[in-house]
Amino acid sequence: MDPQRPQVTLRMLADRLGLHVSTVSRALHAKPEEGRRAASSATIARIRELADELGYQPNPHATSLRTQRSNLVGVLVPRLSDLVLATVYEGIQEAARAQGLSTFVTNTKDEPDTQRAQTEMMLARRVDGLIFGDARADGALLAETAARGVPFVLVSRHVAGHTSVTCDDPLGGRQVAEHLLGLGHRDFAVIAGEPYASTGIDRTRGFLERCAEDGMTVPADRIVHSAFDARGGRQAADRVLDAPGPQPTALFAVNDFAAIGAMGALRDRGLSPGQDIAVVGFNDTPLAAELPIPLTSVRSPMHEMGRRGLDLLTRLLAGEPAPSERLAPTLVVRASSDRPPRS
Amino acid sequence: MDPQRPQVTLRMLADRLGLHVSTVSRALHAKPEEGRRAASSATIARIRELADELGYQPNPHATSLRTQRSNLVGVLVPRLSDLVLATVYEGIQEAARAQGLSTFVTNTKDEPDTQRAQTEMMLARRVDGLIFGDARADGALLAETAARGVPFVLVSRHVAGHTSVTCDDPLGGRQVAEHLLGLGHRDFAVIAGEPYASTGIDRTRGFLERCAEDGMTVPADRIVHSAFDARGGRQAADRVLDAPGPQPTALFAVNDFAAIGAMGALRDRGLSPGQDIAVVGFNDTPLAAELPIPLTSVRSPMHEMGRRGLDLLTRLLAGEPAPSERLAPTLVVRASSDRPPRS
DNA sequence: GCAAGATACCCAAACGTTTGGTCCAATCGT
DNA sequence: ACGATTGGACCAAACGTTTGGGTATCTTGC
Predict the structure, then answer these.
(1) What pLDDT score does B146 carry?
(2) Nearest to A261 by CA among A221, A232, A298, A223
(3) What sign has the CA pseudo-torsion B333, B334, B337, B343?
(4) Domain HTH lacI-type, which positions (chains A, B) (predicted)?
(5) Quick one: how many helices (H) and strands (E) in chain A?
């Protein structure tokens, strides 16, 4: 279309139409009230037409400089190669686009130093607000950031005192316990995720609470922390299974990938997931349904979480109240946990 | 630290030091030659000190407006929730940060309309260059974009006439064939991925070529296209396995997730991957090694591909030559294909 | 026919940088 | 000692917008 990228500016339009640049700006910018006062509707039409013809695109840097608003939001996640956060981010981005915002996203690997550095970097880029997908339970960085007056919301994980949109993780945990108890399981193990992530903490807590309601308690050495990936899950499962004494009949991993890793560990011991030991994951990753042994999992609305997160942020930016949200999970039972424990 | 985000500007520094804003700019900006001519080293030190103390961060919008360079690069991928592209993007971002660049990334879902719209959107955001991770074999959009004088490179997939950094996919395919032929397999099926992606095309081609060298040919109905995910892989495998006649003894999926889906399809038929039928994937996803039946796969340097892609782009932006690169794959043999076919 | 009010514009400043010029004083070569 | 050089800084314009205020011209009410 264009010959060689000669960017069209307001001045070009103005000159070509014999108008002042400010007139053109108003004509293109303000639809409702301002527009009327700025130019005749005939002129506005002329301006619009030429703008379309030449493919005018406002220079966002000029706009941001003038308005002191970048229409940029920064997103921090542990890692984008984690499907869960990648999906959340897709939701964020989708909502952002709908609002005319753009997003920067960056990995922090759950390392506090990196989180801090990347937050700083986002602010240097003059984002209007931030979305943290990697909040740590202690919340030190968040407190600081809030004190600086930076608008932000949390997604996926929550921390008291900050607005967040999360899955109802305790409920999800309860649902898993309910399901397994219903099948007759009594001996559980939990692969609990990273100790600083509210997701793992809450899912585990919900699970244990529900167990407790049936008088069941899970021994401490059957609750092991782990990374949120297959390797982490395998290692955690190894620790549980290598312990002396009787084996659990059911295993709850707070993350699908950890569950897959755990299944591997089971297989290594000649145990068949779903037959010899029930396995349940969390998030209902697209993979879960397609695995050789389909994985029971709690569906969490990852995409939706991202969308709501961004919406909450824009509300915050508009000075409106932005109450935290908790989205409902749904248990999806599959072959990895569809039969009672072996006697 | 800061009270309430009063952004520090050059003028503030200048005023506080009794200097001119241009002097401050030069002192902070140019280290080597320009700096010397701008101010005495004592003054430079004073300026630097105050800048650090106040936490001066140049306003990128002002800079971009003035210099006509945004230090932004746009990245288009099919979807970020695809681990492969997410990992490539991590590499891109890492390299970008090292160069002081920031990246916008967006999903195009491999839909031509979305690709076009997102390209336009990136350009409207005034990115300096683009990285396409979603190039289509036909290359129509790329040709247009090139004609407009927009600098870009391709990663993961390649298209003739554009600079790209890819895995040596044909070689990867050959390695798989070599391995399977070596085990004595003769009846193959290939899950070939999307027909518009050079990755799948090349991996399949390399595989078939190596087979042909041993006088082996794979019937056309044993080569099926598929989406690059577990569901796609399962569906494709279903099609192969439901066909009448003898079953293949080995199955090559051009993507690990497709391979996982295929394993599920095998399981449904009572076939045990690795025992009854060899399965090989591609990319050596972190998941591959941790699966219940560890998956043989071709390791492709995804991260590295991203890094090199960005480096190539910066070279392009600097007006230097930027020849395409092809990174070497490595076959990693695991239990899913470590024994000869059943007689 | 005249003040008042729209209507349809234009003017100019400002956002925070960068950068080619200019200018003054000190230093230097001879 | 005098013109040439240079070191050290200032000046001003420009990048492309937005926006509070003007200023003509045209209606309108009476």
Answers:
(1) 96
(2) A232
(3) positive
(4) 8-67
(5) 13, 12
Determine the CATH number of domain A169-300+331-337: 3.40.50.2300
pLDDT of residue A34: 55
Please tell me whether residue A123 adopts helix, strand or coil conformation: helix
Residue among B48, B125, B66, B63 nearest B100 (CA):
B63
Q: Tell me which H or E stretch contains A193.
A: none
Q: Please, which pLDDT band fits residue B39 given cuts at 50, 70 and 90?
A: confident
Give the integer Cα–Cα distance in Å for B239 and A110: 42
CA distance A249 to A240: 12
B330-332 and B188-191 beta bridge pairing = unpaired
- Give the one of B1, B93, B293 whose C-beta lies nearest to A106's C-beta: B93
- What are the structural domain ranges in chain B? 10-58, 69-167+303-327, 169-300+331-337
- Residues of B with Cβ-Cβ distance to A125 under 8 angstroms: 60, 102
- Domain A71-167+303-327 class, CATH top level: alpha beta
Q: What is the pLDDT of residue B5?
A: 58
**Could you give the CA distance from residue A145 to residue B167 in angstroms, rounded to a whole number?**
41
pLDDT tens per residue across span A272-289: 999 999 999 999 999 999
In degrees rounded to 5, what are phi and psi of residue B129? -165, 170
The three-class DSSP label of residue B150 is coil
In the CATH scheme, what architecture does the domain B69-167+303-327 have? 3-Layer(aba) Sandwich (3.40)
A329 contacts: CB under 8 Å, gap ≥ 6: A167, A168, A169, A171, A172, A175, A298, A299, A300, A301
Chain A interface disruption, residue of B80, B87, B105, most A CBs within 10 A = B80
Residues B273, A292: C-beta atoms closer than 8 Å: yes
